[in-house]
Amino acid sequence: MHPAYSVIFFTTASGAGYALLALMSLMGALGMLPAERWFGLAGFLVGLIAVTAGLLSSTYHLGRPERAWRAFSQWRSSWLSREGVLALFTYVPAGITALGWVIFQEIWLVPALVLAAACMATTVTTSMIYASLKTVRRWSNCWTTPAYLAMGLASGAAWLFLLAGIFALNDTMARPIAMVALLAAGIVKYGYWRFIDTETGVATSGSATGLDRFGKVRLLTAPHTEENYLLKEMGYRIARRHAVRLRAIAFGLAILLPLVILPLVPAPGSVLGVMLAILAVMANAAGTLAERWLFFAEARHTVTLYYGAERA
Amino acid sequence: MTSLPANPAMRRLGLVIDLDICVGCHACAVNCKEWNAGGHMAPLTDFDAFGEKPSGVWFNRIHTFEAGEGADGRTVHFPKSCLHCAEPDCVTVCPTGASFKRSADGIVLVNEDMCIGCKLCSWACPYGAREFDEDVGVMKKCTLCVDRIYNETLPQHERVPACVSTCPAGARHFGDLGDPTSEVSQLVAERGGYDLMPELGYKPTNKYLPPRPRQNGACGTAVTATQVEAEADLSGHPFLRWVDRMLTR
Question: Which of A24, A190, A258, B167 is at 20 to 30 A from A72, Cα to Cα?
Answer without folding.
Answer: A24
